[in-house]
Each structure stands twice: as structure tokens, then as C-alpha cells.
Amino acid sequence: MTSPTLSEVTEEFTDDIRLHEDITGFAAPDPHTVSEVFLTGATGFLGAFLLRQLLAHGLTVHCLVRAPDADAGLKRLEENLRRYELLDTLDLDAVRVVTGDVTRPRLGMPEETYTELAGRIGTIYHSAAKVNFLTIYKWLRRATVDATHEILRLACAAGAILHHTSTTAVFEPTADQPPRGSSTRPGRRRHCNWDTPRASGSPSNSC
Ligand SMILES: NC(=O)c1ccc[n+]([C@@H]2O[C@H](COP(=O)([O-])OP(=O)(O)OC[C@H]3O[C@@H](n4cnc5c(N)ncnc54)[C@H](OP(=O)(O)O)[C@@H]3O)[C@@H](O)[C@H]2O)c1
Questions:
Q1: Which protein residue's CA is at the shortest distance from atom 33 of ligand 1?
Q2: What is the pLDDT of residues 89-140, one digit of tens each?
């Protein structure tokens, strides 16, 4: 088996950053009017602390959790908060667990749940990811690139502001040939959310 060449990898990336036609820009709401938000990755490290901050702002937080049902999902959330010694400091009354998976169409939610959620939320905090710096792109792709597309679809359906969390560099270009679509300014965060700015006429992006 041979490794892909740089141009093959660049071509694959170029295809992957092309947004589907159903992902469009829209007018984002005034953040001050938002009372319900959607959070992914709440069973992870970053998500636990994001959840704490969002609850501290008095928001209702709909958390996407991989679990067989909402009760099992809440248990997973609680276990994770306990792990970071946050559980005892938080009131989870404003937490709503939605079961699903970011790699699946409609994030794995039934259509009715998805539509209802889209009608409620004004902001999305997306921190779910497969975090592994040693593995290869094709094994990360579904949980990162494809999932980002699904999250963008929800942002469009909801007309919601999107905060997308990612990490460091994905792929360092050669000195004279940066991957197409990337900024020319060198820096470790250059490819952070490489694909999201294209849809960001309105949704905001944060790294
Ligand atoms: N940790 C840091 O210091 C740091 C710094 C900068 C940036 N970041 C970035 O922040 C993001 C989160 O990092 P982290 O450290 O919090 O990672 P983490 O602890 O591994 O958490 C990952 C989260 O993503 C969820 N997830 C993974 N695949 C999913 C799927 N298919 N559907 C739904 N949820 C899924 C996990 O759910 P399960 O519990 O079900 O697996 C978990 O809640 C990453 O993009 C990372 O690169 C992290």
C-alpha cells in the first residue's frame, strides 16, 4: 500500500471544504436575545467547562450526548462533570439531554426532535470531536469534517450563531504551496475551522 501524495491529499481537502448547497448564510440573531443554546461534546473535557459557563449565564443548554436514551445521557453528563469536580457546583435543571451523534444525518435525531430543537436554539457551541493527534485524516474525517457540515446544517435550520471549537494545525503546507483555500499568513491556527468561515457570512466562528 502506498501513501497518498501531497497533491492527492490537497485535492481531498479541497473537496472536503466545499460546502453543500443546502448550507447557506443567514442573518444571525442578536446574541443578547438568545436564551436556549445547543452544546456538543459536553461529555468531554472542554464541553464540561463550556457547560458550566453556559449555565452560569442562565441559559437553557440542550446537550447532544451519545447514549441510548436521555436518562443514560444525563448520567454520562453527570459522570463527566464529577470527573472534573464540577458536578457539585452545578444545578442541572436547565440542562436538556438530546441523544444523537454528530456524524449522522440530522445529528442522529428524529426529524421531529431536530425541527423542534432548531426552533428553540439561538446559538450552537460545537466542541464534539474525535481528538487524536496520531491518527490519519480518513479516520478523523467523519467526526470532524462531516460532523461540521451537519452542525452547519443545524445552524442554517435554526438561524443560530455557531461557535466552533477546533484545534491547532491540521495540515502544514509547504513553504511555497499552501493548500488552496487557506490563508497565506503562517501560523499554527491557520486551518482551525478551515471550512466553517465559508458559511460564516453570519454564523460566528471561534477557535
Ligand atoms: N482539551 C484541550 O485542551 C483543547 C484545547 C484546544 C482545542 N481543543 C479542541 O476542543 C475540542 C474538544 O476537545 P476535548 O479535549 O474536550 O475532547 P474530548 O475530551 O475527547 O471530548 C470529545 C467530545 O466529543 C464527543 N464526540 C466525539 N465523537 C462524537 C460523535 N460522533 N457524536 C457526538 N459526540 C461526539 C465526545 O463524546 P463521547 O463522550 O460520547 O465520546 C466528547 O464529549 C476538540 O476539537 C479539540 O481539538 C481542546
A1: 101
A2: 999 999 999 999 999 999 999 999 999 999 999 999 999 999 888 888 888 8
- The residues with which 95 forms a beta bridge, in sequence order, are 61
80 CA closest ligand 1 atom index: 39
DSSP 176: T
For Cα atoms 192, 198, 204, give the angle at the middle one, nearest 5 degrees: 70
Q: Is 142 in the pocket of ligand 1 (CB under 6 A)?
A: no
| Ligand 1 pocket member 66 (CB < 6 A) | yes
Q: Whose CA is nearest to atom 22 of ligand 1?
A: 44
Instruction: Given CATH 3.40.720.10, say whether it is the number of domain 32-199.
Output: no
Cell of 85: 469536580
Instruction: Measure 41 CA to ligand 1 centroid, in angstroms.
Output: 5
Q: Which three cell numbers stand for residue 194?
A: 478551515
Per-residue pLDDT tens over the stretch 149-162 = 999 999 999 999 99
